[in-house]
Specification:
This protein is of the alpha+beta class and 669 residues long. The protein is 27% helix and 33% strand. It has an 8-stranded antiparallel β-sheet, sandwiched between helices. An 8-stranded antiparallel barrel has the order 24-25-26-27-28-29-30-31. Bound molecules: adenosine-5'-diphosphate.
C-alpha cells in the first residue's frame, strides 16, 4: 500500500478521500488555490501545496503544477476525485512518465470512453445493448437526417464529445431537424471544439440506472449493484438512491453482467460507472461509462457496507479486489440528496456567499454528511456550488425516505439561498414516495414540488402565523424569567389590557406574495387561543412550541411541523412540504412588488456572456436582454416591461459583482 498520496481535488471529495487514507494510515497531501487557502481539505491533510489563482483552469486543472506538488512532497500516487483531471488522459500520461500512480483506470480505457460514438462502437462489439441510433463517422446532414427519419421521431442529437448535457437537442418532428442539428453543433463546437453528432432514439419516460463496477489488475471484476439517478434537473442529478426501486434480481443480474462486459471490453481497472437508460418495458441501453468515482458513490457504500475509496486505493496498489461477487450483498436502502447553494425558484440559479450559520443533522449509522465546508466558509463563484451531500440509510425505502426528510428538515444554513426546501418538497411528495421515477420527474411534478397552489396558502399561512406569535410569547416569557418577577403583568407578551383581546399585526412573505396577518389573542382560564385572520380567511388556533417543534391545532385539525429560522426568514417543514417565509417588518412600509428595475441587477457574481439587445432598442416585456454566467450556469436577464434599454453598463466578457446594476431600462408609462 502507498505511504503517501496527493489528492488533486477540493471540497467534499478531497475530504472524503483524505478520511479513508487516514483510516488506512496513508499520509495525505492536499492542493489548493487562492480561494481555498484556508479550506477544510487543506486543514485535514498532512501537507498542502499551493497551486495558483482561484479559477480552476489556473490551479486545479493545471496538470504540471499538480504533478510538481506530488514530486516535491514525495507522494507515490494521485487520487483525482471527480471532475477536474479525473478523466484527462494527458495528465495520466504525465503521471506515468514521472512514475506516479494515477488512482484510476489505464489510459486507453479513459480514451476509449472519451467519445460517445467510439464508446458505443466498442460496446456494440461487446454485446452491450445500445439505444437504437446512428453513431457512424459520416457526418453529412442528409445521412444524419435519414437516420432520424428511419428510426422515427422523437430523436435525440448528442455531441460525440459531449458531457454535462451540452450539445444535446431533442427533435420532436422532421421539420425541426435542421434547426436542432445546427444548434447542437454550434453548442458542441463552442464547448468541446468538435461538432460530430450522433443520433439516438429519444426515450420519453426512461429511468437513469447506473451500475457501479470494480476491476483489479488481475482480471477480477464485480459490480456493486445499481443506483437510480432519474431525478434530474438540466440533466444533472439531484437525488440518487440504491438499490433502484422495483428492480428484480433477474434484471439486476442482466444489467450487472452487461456492465462488467462493458468494463472488460476496455480492460478496465478501478472504480467505474456504466450508465444505462432503463425503459418502461424493462429494456435497458448503454449510455456512457464514467471512468472515475461518481459523486453519488456513497449510496452504494451504504447498501454494500464497503468503502469504495479504500477499494480504489487497494486496486491501484496492485491488490486483489477485496470481495468477490458472491460475497457482495445488498443491505437496506440509501438516498443521497445534493445540497446546493442555488435558488430553485429562479430556475436553480447558483448562489454564493458566506455560510454565516451552518448546522448539519447529527451523524449516525443512519445519517452521513459528506462536505468540504464549515460555518464561516465561502461558497465561491469559482467552483461548483455544492455545499454537502446528505446520505441516509435504513432497512427499507420507506424508512430511509423518512430519515431523508427528517434530516433535511434539520439542516440549517444561513447566508445564502439553498435547495434544501426544494429537496424536502421533492422527497416528501407522493409521486416520489411511490417511486414513480423517470428522468422527467421534476418537470412532470412541478406543481406538487413547487406548491404554487393557492390552497397551500390557506393551509400553511395560519401555521406560520401561529408559530410567530408562539415564538414571540416564548421570548417574552424568557425575558420575564430573567427579570426576576415573572408574574408581573408588565412582562406579558399580550400587551395586557383589561377585558380586551390583544391583536398582533404583521406581514409574511411567501414566494413573491406578501400577506397581511392579524392574530387576536384570547386568554380563557389558563389557556390561550388565537383567531388568525388572513384576508377572507379566519381560523381558530392554539398550539405550543418546544425547541424547533411546533404542535398546532387549527380549527380542530392537529398537526406538527419543524421550524428552522435563519435571519429574517424561516422554513416550516410539515409532513409533506417545506415553505420558506420571510418576516416583513412593519416599518418597511408597503413592500414593492412591482418588477420595475428589480431584475436588472446582477443576481450573482459572475461574467457577462452576451448582450442580446442594442442600446436604444424598443423591446417587449420578457425579451432577453443580457446573459450572465456563474458556476457553469447561465442566467438570462429579461425586460421587466415594454420599453427600451437606455444603457448597458457592462460588455460581454466583463466580471460583475452580485447586486451591481447591469443596464438602465426605461419602461413605457
Ligand atoms: P452527458 O454526458 O452530457 O451528461 P448523457 O449521455 O450522460 O449526457 O445523458 C444525460 C441525461 O440525458 C441522461 O441521464 C438522460 O436523462 C438523458 N438522456 C440521454 N440519452 C437519452 C435518450 N436517448 N433518450 C432519453 N433521454 C436521454
Amino acid at each position: 500500500m502507498f505511504a503517501k498520496i496527493l489528492i488533486a481535488n477540493r471540497g467534499e471529495i478531497a475530504c472524503r478521500v483524505i478520511r479513508t487514507a487516514q483510516k488506512l494510515g496513508i499520509r495525505t497531501v492536499a492542493v489548493f488555490s487562492d480561494a481555498d487557502s484556508d479550506a477544510m481539505h487543506v486543514h485535514m491533510a498532512d501537507e498542502a501545496v499551493y497551486l495558483g489563482p482561484s479559477p480552476s483552469r489556473e490551479s486545479y486543472l493545471v496538470g504540471e503544477r499538480v504533478l510538481e506538488a506530488a514530486l516535491k512532497t514525495g507522494a507515490e500516487a494521485i487520487h483525482p476525485g471527480y471532475g477536474f483531471l479525473s478523466e484527462n488522459a494527458d495528465f495520466c500520461r504525465q503521471c506515468e512518465t514521472h512514475n506516479i500512480v494515477f488512482i484510476g483506470p489505464p489510459i486507453p480505457a479513459i480514451e476509449a470512453m472519451g467519445s460517445k460514438s467510439a464508446a458505443k462502437t466498442i460496446m456494440e462489439k461487446a454485446g452491450v445493448p445500445l439505444v437504437p441510433g446512428y453513431h457512424g463517422e459520416d457526418q453529412s446532414r442528409d445521412l444524419l437526417k435519414q437516420a432520424a427519419d428511419d428510426m422515427g421521431y422523437p430523436v435525440l442529437l448528442k455531441a460525440c464529445a459531449g458531457g454535462g448535457g451540452k450539445g444535446m437537442r431533442q427533435v420532436w418532428k422532421e421539420s425541426e431537424f435542421d434547426e436542432a442539428l445546427n444548434a447542437a453543433k454550434r453548442e458542441s463546437l463552442s464547448s468541446f471544439g468538435d461538432d460530430d453528432m450522433l443520433v439516438e432514439k429519444y426515450l420519453t419516460q426512461p429511468r437513469h440506472v447506473e451500475i457501479q463496477v470494480f476491476c483489479d489488475q488481475h482480471g477480477n471484476a464485480v459490480h456493486i449493484f445499481e443506483r437510480d439517478c432519474s431525478v434530474q434537473r438540466r440533466h444533472q442529478k439531484v437525488i440518487e438512491e440504491a438499490p433502484a426501486p422495483g428492480m428484480d434480481p433477474a434484471l439486476r443480474e442482466a444489467m450487472g453482467d452487461a456492465a462488467i462486459r462493458a468494463a472488460q471490453a476496455i480492460n478496465y481497472e478501478g472504480a467505474g460507472t456504466v450508465e444505462f437508460l432503463l425503459d418502461v418495458d424493462g429494456s435497458f441501453y448503454f449510455m456512457e461509462m464514467n471512468t472515475r468515482l461518481q459523486v453519488e458513490h456513497p449510496v452504494s457504500e451504504m447498501i454494500s457496507g464497503q468503502d469504495l475509496v479504500e477499494w480504489q486505493l487497494r486496486v491501484a496498489a496492485g491488490e486483489n479486489l477485496p470481495l468477490s461477487q458472491d460475497q457482495l450483498h445488498i443491505n437496506g436502502h440509501a438516498f443521497e440528496a445534493r445540497i446546493y447553494a442555488e435558488d430553485p425558484d429562479q430556475d436553480f440559479l447558483p448562489a454564493s456567499g458566506q455560510l454565516s450559520f451552518l448546522q448539519a443533522p447529527t451523524a449516525s449509522p443512519h445519517v452521513r454528511v459528506d462536505t468540504g465546508v464549515r460555518q464561516g466558509d465561502e461558497v465561491s463563484i469559482f467552483y461548483d456550488p455544492m455545499i454537502a451531500k446528505l446520505i441516509v440509510w435504513d432497512e427499507d425505502r420507506d424508512k430511509a425516505l423518512s430519515r431523508l426528510t427528517k434530516a433535511l428538515s434539520e439542516y440549517r444554513i444561513s447566508g445564502m439561498t439553498t435547495n434544501i426546501d426544494f429537496l424536502y418538497n421533492l422527497a416528501s411528495s407522493a409521486p416520489f414516495r411511490e417511486a414513480q421515477l423517470d428522468t422527467g420527474f421534476i418537470e412532470k411534478h412541478h406543481s406538487v414540488i413547487f406548491h404554487d397552489d393557492a390552497q397551500d396558502y390557506e393551509r400553511d399561512l395560519p401555521l406560520a402565523a401561529l408559530y410567530l406569535v408562539l415564538k414571540q410569547a416564548q421570548r417574552a416569557e424568557e425575558k420575564a424569567m430573567a427579570s426576576g418577577d415573572p408574574s408581573s403583568p408588565w412582562h406579558q407578551s399580550n400587551a395586557w389590557r383589561l377585558n380586551e383581546p390583544h391583536v398582533h399585526h404583521f406581514e409574511l412573505q411567501l414566494h413573491d406574495r406578501v400577506f397581511p396577518i392579524a392574530v387576536a389573542q384570547i386568554n380563557t382560564g389558563g389557556s390561550t387561543r388565537y383567531t388568525i385572520s388572513i384576508g377572507e380567511l379566519e381560523v381558530d388556533a392554539q398550539g405550543n412550541l418546544s425547541g424547533s417543534e411546533l404542535h398546532a391545532d387549527i380549527d380542530g385539525y392537529q398537526s406538527r411541523a419543524t421550524v428552522s429560522i435563519h435571519d429574517d426568514t424561516f422554513s416550516l417543514y410539515t409532513l409533506d412540504r417545506a415553505l420558506n417565509f420571510k418576516m416583513v417588518q412593519a416599518d418597511l412600509g408597503e413592500s414593492d412588488q412591482g418588477d420595475a428595475g428589480g431584475g436588472l441587477v446582477a443576481p450573482m457574481n459572475g461574467t457577462v456572456v452576451a448582450l442580446l439587445a442594442d442600446k436604444g432598442q424598443r423591446v417587449e416585456k420578457d425579451t432577453p436582454l443580457l446573459v450572465m454566467e456563474a458556476m457553469k450556469m447561465e442566467h438570462t436577464i429579461r425586460a421587466p416591461a415594454d420599453g427600451e434599454v437606455s444603457e448597458f453598463y457592462y460588455q460581454a466578457g466583463e466580471l460583475v459583482d452580485g447586486g451591481a446594476e447591469l443596464l438602465s431600462f426605461n419602461a413605457d408609462e
